[in-house]
C-alpha cells in the first residue's frame, strides 16, 4: 500500500503503442498499473459465446504476455461493475491518479462521471484524453457555432481543421518500463465470467497500397475482399486511429478518408443528440405506424425473406458477425421500408451480432436508411433489392456463397412483392408527415 501508482484504464484502446492516455500515464514519476474491467453492465446483456468478448479477452492476454516477458509487468483484469471495482482497487493500491481515453457513448459519460466522483471523494485525480478520433465534440463546428447536421459541409470543415493541425504520434511503447513491476496481477479466464470462447474470429484488417489505390472501385462489391475489415479494430482500438488516417492521406485516397470522417460525424451527432439512440432525429418520423410483425422480423433475421441479396446479407451476419457495408444499407432499407418494421428493432439486432458494433455509426446508419435521421436518405427512397443485385452482385457470386439453395425449389418465394411494399411504405410515411 505504501508504493504510489497511477492507473491506466484500458477500454476501447487495446494496444500498447500510440495510446494517448497510456503515454501520459507513463510520463509520471509513479509506476503505471494497467487495468481492464469486464463491465457487467454491458456483459450481462450478451450471449455467453459472444465473439466480441472473446476478442477483447484474447487481445488483453496478448498485451499481458508482452508486458510480462519484456517489462516484468502485466494487466490487472476484473469482472464487475466499474464503480465497485474502483472502490476495490483504491483499497488494494495507493492510487495517485487514473488515466484513460475518452469514450463518447451515453452510457460511457454516465459511467465516467460516477468514477470521477468516487475518485474525487478519495483525493484521486482523473485524467481523460482524446484517442479514438481526430476531432471530437465541438471541434468541428459551423463558423457561427453549432453542430453540422449534414455530412458534406462537416467533411469539408473537418479537412480545413485538419490542415491547421498536425497529427502527433504518442510513443507509449517506448516508456513501458515504467509500468508496475508485478507479473502476477489479478487475472480472469472467460469461464470465470461465465463466458466461453466463440467460434467466430475477428479477421485481420488489410490496408495494402494496391487495396487503397483500388478502394473506390472495389468497396461496393460484396463478393470480393474489397473492404479493409478495419472496423472491429477501430471499434476496440487494436490499431491506432492516427496511423490509419495517415495511411489514407499518404495513399491520397479521399474516398477511404471520407469513410473515416463519416465515423467522426456520427460520433459528434450522438454526443450532441444522445436522445437519438432511442428516438428519431427528426421527431416527425416518430409518428410512423410501424407494422412490427414479429413473424416477418424472424424471417428477416434468419435470411429467409425470399429476396436473395437480403438473405445473403443476414446469413453472412449470423455466421461471421460481419456484413458488407453496401448490403447493410440494402437489408436495413428492406426491414424499415418493405416490411415497415421499426429501425430500432434492426439496430438492436445488429448490436447483438456485429463484431464492429459502434452505437454512433449503427444508429446513424439505421436512421439513414429509415429516413428518420440526420442527413438521411429521403423517405421516398426505397432500395430495390433486385436492382441492387444487378448493380453490385450481377453474377450472383455473393448470393450463391451465402444462400446455396438459391435457384432451387427449397428457396422461399418473396415474402412481399416489391412494388406493393414500396407503395405501402410511401403511404405510411406520407401519413406520418401529414400529422405535423
From TrEMBL:
<dbReference type="InterPro" id="IPR018394">
    <property type="entry name" value="DNA_photolyase_1_CS_C"/>
</dbReference>
<keyword id="KW-0157">Chromophore</keyword>
<dbReference type="Pfam" id="PF00875">
    <property type="entry name" value="DNA_photolyase"/>
</dbReference>
<feature type="domain" description="Photolyase/cryptochrome alpha/beta">
    <location>
        <begin position="4"/>
        <end position="134"/>
    </location>
</feature>
<keyword id="KW-0274">FAD</keyword>
<dbReference type="InterPro" id="IPR002081">
    <property type="entry name" value="Cryptochrome/DNA_photolyase_1"/>
</dbReference>
<keyword id="KW-0285">Flavoprotein</keyword>
<dbReference type="InterPro" id="IPR036134">
    <property type="entry name" value="Crypto/Photolyase_FAD-like_sf"/>
</dbReference>
<dbReference type="InterPro" id="IPR006050">
    <property type="entry name" value="DNA_photolyase_N"/>
</dbReference>
<dbReference type="InterPro" id="IPR005101">
    <property type="entry name" value="Cryptochr/Photolyase_FAD-bd"/>
</dbReference>
<dbReference type="Pfam" id="PF03441">
    <property type="entry name" value="FAD_binding_7"/>
</dbReference>
<dbReference type="InterPro" id="IPR014729">
    <property type="entry name" value="Rossmann-like_a/b/a_fold"/>
</dbReference>
<protein>
    <submittedName>
        <fullName>Deoxyribodipyrimidine photo-lyase</fullName>
    </submittedName>
</protein>
<dbReference type="InterPro" id="IPR036155">
    <property type="entry name" value="Crypto/Photolyase_N_sf"/>
</dbReference>
<comment type="similarity">
    <text>Belongs to the DNA photolyase family.</text>
</comment>
Amino acid at each position: 500500500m505504501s508504493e504510489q501508482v497511477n492507473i491506466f484504464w484500458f477500454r476501447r484502446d487495446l494496444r500498447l503503442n500510440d495510446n494517448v492516455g497510456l503515454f501520459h500515464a507513463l510520463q509520471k514519476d509513479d509506476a503505471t498499473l494497467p487495468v481492464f474491467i469486464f463491465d457487467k453492465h454491458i456483459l450481462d446483456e450478451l450471449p455467453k459465446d459472444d465473439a466480441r468478448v472473446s476478442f477483447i479477452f484474447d487481445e488483453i492476454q496478448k498485451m499481458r504476455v508482452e508486458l510480462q516477458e519484456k517489462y516484468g509487468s502485466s494487466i490487472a483484469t476484473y469482472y464487475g461493475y466499474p464503480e465497485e471495482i474502483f472502490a476495490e482497487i483504491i483499497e488494494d493500491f495507493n492510487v495517485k491518479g487514473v488515466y484513460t481515453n475518452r469514450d463518447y457513448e451515453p452510457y460511457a459519460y454516465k459511467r465516467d462521471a460516477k468514477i470521477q466522483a468516487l475518485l474525487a471523494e478519495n483525493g484521486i485525480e482523473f485524467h481523460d484524453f482524446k484517442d479514438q478520433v481526430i476531432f471530437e465534440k465541438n471541434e468541428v463546428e459551423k463558423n457561427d457555432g453549432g453542430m453540422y447536421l449534414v455530412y458534406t459541409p462537416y467533411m469539408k470543415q473537418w479537412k480545413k481543421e485538419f490542415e491547421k493541425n498536425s497529427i502527433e504520434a504518442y510513443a507509449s511503447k517506448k516508456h513501458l518500463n515504467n509500468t508496475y513491476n508485478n507479473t502476477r496481477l489479478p487475472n480472469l479466464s472467460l469461464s470465470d465470467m461465465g463466458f466461453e470462447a466463440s467460434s467466430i474470429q475477428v479477421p485481420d484488417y488489410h490496408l495494402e497500397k494496391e487495396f487503397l489505390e483500388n478502394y473506390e472501385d472495389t468497396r461496393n462489391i460484396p463478393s470480393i475482399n474489397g473492404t479493409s475489415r478495419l472496423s472491429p479494430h477501430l471499434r476496440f482500438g487494436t490499431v491506432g486511429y492516427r496511423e490509419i488516417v495517415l495511411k489514407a492521406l499518404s495513399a491520397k485516397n479521399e474516398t477511404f478518408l471520407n469513410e473515416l470522417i463519416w465515423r467522426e460525424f456520427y460520433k459528434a451527432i450522438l454526443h450532441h443528440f444522445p436522445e437519438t439512440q432511442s428516438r428519431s432525429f427528426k421527431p416527425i418520423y416518430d409518428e410512423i405506424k410501424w407494422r412490427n410483425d414479429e413473424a416477418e422480423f424472424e424471417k428477416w433475421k434468419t435470411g429467409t425473406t425470399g429476396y436473395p441479396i437480403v438473405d445473403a446479407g443476414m446469413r453472412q451476419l449470423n455466421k461471421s458477425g460481419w456484413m458488407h457495408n453496401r448490403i447493410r444499407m440494402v437489408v436495413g432499407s428492406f426491414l424499415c421500408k418493405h416490411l415497415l418494421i421499426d429501425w430500432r428493432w434492426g439496430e438492436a439486432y445488429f448490436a447483438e451480432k456485429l463484431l464492429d458494433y459502434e452505437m454512433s455509426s449503427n444508429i446513424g446508419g439505421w436512421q439513414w436508411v429509415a429516413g428518420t435521421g440526420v442527413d438521411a436518405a429521403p423517405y421516398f427512397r426505397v432500395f430495390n433489392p433486385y436492382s441492387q443485385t444487378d448493380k453490385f452482385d450481377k453474377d450472383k457470386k455473393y448470393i450463391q456463397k451465402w444462400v446455396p439453395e438459391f435457384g432451387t425449389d427449397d428457396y422461399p418465394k418473396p415474402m412481399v412483392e416489391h412494388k406493393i411494399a414500396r407503395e405501402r411504405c410511401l403511404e405510411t410515411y406520407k401519413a406520418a408527415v401529414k400529422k405535423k
